[in-house]
Each structure stands twice: as C-alpha cells, then as structure tokens.
Amino acid sequence: MKKGFVKIIAGLMAGMLLLGGCNATPKQSEGPHDVPLTITADFTKKENKGNWVTYGDCKITTKDGKAIITDRKASNCGIAIPCPDYRGNTVKATVQATTDNDSLMLSLRYEIFGNVSYVNIAPGMKNDSGVIDITGSIEIPANAENSQIYLEASDVRDITVNSFEVSISGELNNLTGEPVETLSDPSQVASLSAAYADYFKFGVASPATVMTNKNDGFRSLIKTQFNSVTPENELKPDSVLDAEKNLADPAKYNEAPAIHFDAAKPILDFCKENNIPMRGHTLVWHSQTPSWFFYENYDVNGNLASRELMLKRMENYIDSVINWCETNYPGVIYAWDVCNECIDDGGGIRQSYWTQTIGEDFVEKAFEFARKHAPANVQLFYNDYNEYQGSKQDDILALLAPVAAAGNIDGMGMQSHISSGLDVDNYVGAAKRYADELGVVIHITELDVQAPKSVNSMYDQGVYMKKLFTAIIEADKAGVPIECVTVWGLTDDMSWKSSTKPLLFYGNLTPKPAYEGVMCAVNGGEVAKPADWVEPKSDLTPYAEDFEDQKFNGGPRYSSVQKIVGDAYEGDYCLENSEGYAEYDGYAVDVSSFAGHTIHITFAIKSKCDTCKLTADIDGTWPTIAEVATADGEWHFVEADYEVEDGMALQIYWESTDMNPFYLDNVTIEATN
Ligand code: 9MR
Fold it and tell me: pTM higher than 0.85, yes or no?
C-alpha cells in the first residue's frame, strides 16, 4: 500500500479551465466569511454583478429581468451561477427558461486537484405552455474549487432564462479558505491491471486535464493501475468537429466535415508515450454532437440534410477520425465505440437527428463505414447503458443482428453504470447472451457502482465489488469473452456521479474498500472491516406519511418534482409527482432499515394515466410490488407485501406509465415478521 510521500496541494488550478470562455468566479476568501444561503441570479444587473456569468462560448444580453442566451457555439454553452463557497454542501438549484432546444439540463462544474469535473443535476422538458422548470439537488465535494451550476441544452439554439437560483439544502457547512488536502502517492498501490492480467485488461476513463495537471499523482495512478484508457469526453463528436471551420466555410466542408484533435492530443500523447492502448469513444452518438452537423450548409435555421448528404458526412467523419488517429498515433487506439446509446429508454430505436436524416439503418451504415475504413486489427464496438436489463437486451440484440450478420461488429460495450442492487448473475448472464447471440467479445466500458446508502456504505460497496468481480472472473473462465473492464473515472470526486461515490479511489488517490473488493475477487481474502464499522441495526420503526405537515421524507427518483398539494385522499394534503420525463421518474423512499423482513405497504394513489406502479429499485430487474389501474382519475387504496432481502440497501418507488402526474397519500410501511 502507499507509503510516506505526500504532497500538499494548494492554490492550483487558475488557468486550467477546460472551457476557455468561462468567466472567472470570485476568489475564495482566506478567513471565515459570510456565505449567503441563497444565490439568485439578478438579470437587471450585468454579468458578475448580478450573481451570474456566461458559461462557455455564447453571448448573453439582459432584457426585462430575463437573460437571453444567443450565439451558443456548443450545447454546453449557457449561463452559470458561481457558488465556490458552497463546496462540501448539498445544494438545490432551480431554473425557469424557454427555448427552442428540445430539452435543457442543469449541471455542476468544478475543479478538483487540477482536474475538471462535470456532473448532470437534472434534465428538464417543456411543459404545455412551452416553459421548462428544472429543480435538482447535488452534493459538491469538499475539495471542489470554482464550483458553478450551469444551464446547458440538448442543442445550440437560443435560451431565455426567466429565473435561476442556487441555495443550500439543510444546514450550511461553512468551509472557509482554500480547500487544502494531501494527495497520496499511488505508485506503491498494488496494480489492478497486473492482478487481472490472466483475465482481461483493466481500464479507466480519464479527462485530458490529467495529462497537463501539475500533480503527477493522477498520471501515476493511470500508469501503475490501468492498461487501457478511454478519453472521457475528448473524442466525442462535439470535441472533434471543428465548429469554427465548418461554420465559416460550409460549402467547402459540406460533405467532409473539418475535424481537429486539440482536446484529445494530450491524452493520445500520454497513451503513446506510455504504451497504454486506448478505447476510442465515440463516433456516432445522439448526444454531444452539435445539431448544425445535421443541417444543410451546417445552418440550423435551414433544412435538415438529406439522407444522401448525411451518409457522406457520416462516412467521411468516421474515415477521417479513425485515420487521423491511425496516422498520427499508429496502433494506439485498439477499439472504437462506433455507435453509442441508440436504444430509447422506452424501448425501440432512439429517435434522433441520425434517424431523422439517415433513417433507422444509420447504425448498420455506421458499422459498414467503420469496417471499411478501420485497420483490420481495430475492434468495432456498440456501447450502451442499462444493457443488463432484459427488454433492453432484446432491443440491442435486434438492432445489432444485421450488423453482426454483415460481419461489421467485433464487440459489445456494456457501460455498466450500476448500483449495488444489481444481481450479479443477471449481469454476467447478459454478457454471455451478447457474446453468444452476436458472436462478439465483451468490454465492460464505463463501470461505476453507486455506493449503497447503508451505515457502512464504503465497506458494503467493497463487499459488493468482490461479489461482482468474482462473477465476472467466473464468467470469463467459463468462456464468456470478457476482454476489458473499464471503470468510468479515476476517483470518486472526478466522477460524473461524484455524490454517489461510485469508483475505486478516493479523491486524494487512496484506494477505497471498493478497490480492495476488486482485488479480493482475484487474489482471495475478504474486504477488511474499517475501524469505524458499526453493527447494522434493523430499524423496524413503521414508516408513515400522510403529508399533513406539508413535508415529505422520500425524494425524486431521477428527475421528477414533488410538491405538496390539496385534494387529498384523507385530510388536507397529499403529494404530487410531476414533470418526470420518463415513467420511472417517480417518488422513492428508502426501506433499507427493513432488510431481512417482509414489509406490508399501504397507500392511496390517483392519476389520469392508465397504470401506476410501486416498484423495487433493483438494477436490472425492477420487480413490481403493486400495479394499479388509475385511468378513472379516482383515488385507489392499495395494499401489498414485499420481502426485502437481508443486507440489501433498497429504495422502492411509485411511478406512472406515462408523464401524467400522480398523487400519493396515506403511505404506511411496516414489517410483518
Ligand atoms: O463522463 C462524461 C461527462 O463528463 C460528460 O459531461 C457527459 C456528457 O454527456 O458524458 C459522460 O460520459 C458518458 C459517456 O460518454 C457515455 N455513457 C454515459 C456517460 C456518463 O454520462
């Protein structure tokens, strides 16, 4: 394990901003200082004076107390509220806007030990009057610097912001002065890739900021632990497409888009110098691809490009990206994610600019072009999330059947953004099914595992990691061709889901029990119980909420909004769940304290949608606890029983089968044994 050498990190960062267009945020003061509990953007005042700044390359003008964002060069350009003093706190952000973009997203950006992290907080879709309201909460790591909550969009169209506010949830944790922590030297930590050499490559996703970081520790961690690297964002179309050139001379680049590798070069250089093979991520995706790419003359105010034109652009893009990398960094990229996330969350092929322009065979075409232009030894992958879920497996297999039949795919990329509720046998079963039915190899491409919300969260995560990797090793030994397992990020603090602490190393580069669990799976042994381990108590206190105090104990599952409203089943108040954009955006409560017991649940529910459901939040299976026909719009009183497995951290959630709001009242949960 790591020894001795520690390094004090202080005052890094200035000038390392990935987004050149970001305006400076106020510097943190040295001593104790007053921190406002709410920061409200004031659009009657100028940038920096009114608690808001321009985020990225765009223009903001203010009028009638609103901010109008135009000339947005990329989908992540928008407006931000700097909140550097909120580090170490959970914050709530609320925004109201109108736009021609399909959807907006509230996100968090911060710098930490010289790296930049981006975390999505909550998405928002238009309501009936065309307005988008988004509210979401996020925990900002204690060592984050220059935190900003920003508004981005699915597209580069204008946005008008009516209101924008960020506030502290709960008690303020007032962290004063510069964040200072020691980074540990990871070079002596036993190597994951060495330990797994007999089975598969052990990879990691990294942002290119790691390569230019003052702190050697991050590079050292990659070099010692991992033998495959995936650039986290730098090879995505919005990084590679050269907006300036294409937009300045659309006629010249109409069929063959101009590309550049400014963002990716540092990480390509690093991999080349250190002989670490790279996974290229990703060529064809509905997200992080600017909308102008899909228009005639790259003009979003004109017409969408024809199928013929888009096929040419797609082929030229795939050809030029693969071959630029091959020419300039021969042999570095050993696998490409050719197509990413093409199945819709509701099932079937995802509708996107790709389907609108080329049509539903765009996946087949992308693989055909990739096969034609990639060197024979470069493996071609399809990559997707929720890939372990039964119906998604069916959809992915149906999508890829013709691609496999044409001999144009080599691998299935299982992203694996999971929680410790996922059944490991189901998971490796999915890997086997892809390999068997498509005749391809398997890469686990983006593994991260949300830590359970248990009293010994880090330890329990470690125990789960041992179980998961034991199953992966067993599957590999039994012939499932798992050739690489990549974790999606170096440290918890750098993760796109940092508040769920889903990775193998802490922010200061120290290995977590999760790392130990992965090592125990291959070397034997058990994850050590930490000194502060506490005996988990099953707390069988019955759970009841009738919302009469106008509060609720549960919370949103993903992006729905909860409100206390009138017209209750009993009494004056009930809970409204609305503004979700998928059926599973429901209302969740934690029942982990009942682990090892059967619970009896009663509740009243009302909605205009056909069916409402109560579901257990277990990745990959999501068992239905109760299903209620609600089309009559009346209140229904429901009773159900469910056995919560021993040792399981579990949430249950109410959901509706369409986006109609549902109303919930008189919830009780108690153990029956
Ligand atoms: O980790 C990436 C994060 O930094 C970006 O902001 C985000 C933008 O969509 O993409 C994240 O990576 C995604 C990956 O490319 C595809 N699968 C889901 C990953 C997590 O969102």
Answer: no
